[in-house]
Amino acid sequence: MKKFTKIMLCLTLAALLLLSGCGKNDVVVPAPLGEISGNTYTNTYAGYGCKLEGNWTLVPAEQLQELPADFREAIKDTAIGEQLSEVTRIMDVQATNTDTFANFNVLYEELTAAQRLTLLSTSEEEVIDQTLVSKDQMIEAYKAVGMDVSSMEKTTVKFLGEDRAALRTIVDLNGTQMYVIQIFDSHLGGKYRVAITFTADSEENVAQMMDSFYKLG
Known about the structure:
Blueprint: H1 2-18, E1 35-37, E2 40-43, E3 48-51, E4 56-60, H2 69-75, H3 79-84, E5 89-97, E6 103-110, H4 113-120, H5 124-132, H6 135-144, E7 148-159, E8 162-173, E9 176-185, E10 192-200, H7 203-211, E11 213-215
C-alpha cells in the first residue's frame, strides 16, 4: 500500500510539473470536463476518449482537486512547490490499473489571454523545449518525494494515430523504474490547455495505455 501511495504521488507530480510556472487568472472559468462511464472515459473538449480493458479504477474530477497533504509537505520548499500556488489547475481524471499500477491522468490549466496568444504561434516541440528549461527544478521536486530521475528529455510518440512531441521521464521508485510520458494540447481554442500523463513500469505498458485512446468526432 505504501508503494501504491508513492506511485500515486508520482503520477500527480508528473502532471502538475508540466503545467506549472504560468500566471494565474483572477477568474476561474468552468472547465468542460470529461465524463466517466464504467471503464470508458470521454473528453469532448480534448477530442479523445478511451475504453479500458481489465481491472481499472477511474477517479472523477470532484475527488481529485485537493493535493495529498504529504505531497504538499514534501514539495513546499522547492521551486516547483512555490510555483504551484500560482497556477489554476483542475485534475479531470485519474485512472489506475489495479493489477499493474499503470496509470494515466488528465490535467487542465487555465490560460490567460496573453498566454493563449503566445501559444498560437508556439509549436508542440517548442513548448516541450520551454518546459525543459525548468528541468533542474522538476528533478528537485521529484527528489523531494523520494524519486530519482535518470532521464528527462523530449521525444516523439504515436498518440491518436499521429506523431506527437512529448516529455519522457524515467524515475526510480523504490528500485523500480517508472516511465512517464506527457503530452499536452495547447491549441484547443478554449481557455484551457490539457495535459495527459501516462505512467507505467515499462514502455510497453505505457504504449498499451496510449493505444487504448481514440479520436472523437
